[in-house]
Specification:
By secondary structure, this protein is α+β, with helices and mostly antiparallel strands. The chain has one domain (about 5-105): HIT-like (HIT family, subunit A), CATH 3.30.428.10. Helix content is about 25%, strand content about 20%. The protein has helices at about 5-10, 50-60, 60-75; strands at about 20-25, 25-30, 40-45, 85, 105. Strands 1-2-3-5-4 form a five-stranded antiparallel β-sheet, with helices on one face.
Amino acid sequence: MALDDCIFCKIAAGQIPSRKVYEDDTVLAFEDVNPQAKVHVLVVPKTHYTDILDISRRGIDDLGAMMRGVGEVVRAKGLEKNGFRLVNNCGSDGCQSVKHVHIHVLGGEQLSEKMS
């Protein structure tokens, strides 16, 4: 996929609007347009990495920045008291629908114990 076809690259560049929750020089966090929980925020690096394996090879500092972004989202959404879930889908068997690494932050309600 060409980077100019990546929806998350376009959102990070401001070409497609989003409901931002957190942003710094490295990452952007925004509300998911198809939420699976009361709180559902995506944390993405502004640099394109295909998946978690790609960022772990080429962008370990950006991976750390994503985790910092997760913390900012958790605090902004008030999830630190009752908890939350982090999800990263990788590859077709992992149901990764957008080929740009991202972390789902889910919470704001009791989540199912079932992970599938």
